[in-house]
Write a structure and sequence with these properties.
This protein has 67 residues and is mostly helical. Helices cover 54% and strands 6% of the residues.
């Protein structure tokens, strides 16, 4: 019995949607590139807000204790 293997051309998977594409880069389209950038900015904004709240709690705690 002869085994046949199918050769798949060199390809990449999109970082956002997972779609396969041939070419260079991390994204299959400009839409996915923009969506990933918007998501990164959203995560950064959320992180900065959490850090600001954390520092505010620390400052209030320090003044409350009276150090």
């Amino acid at each position: 019995m002869e085994e046949r293997t199918v050769k798949i051309p060199q390809h990449h998977h999109c970082r956002v949607c997972g779609k396969t594409f041939i070419g260079d880069g991390l994204y299959c389209s400009d839409e996915c590139r923009g969506r990933d950038g918007a998501e990164a900015r959203k995560k950064l904004r959320r992180y900065l807000v959490c850090m600001a709240v954390l520092w505010a709690v620390v400052v209030v705690a320090v003044f409350a204790i009276g150090i």
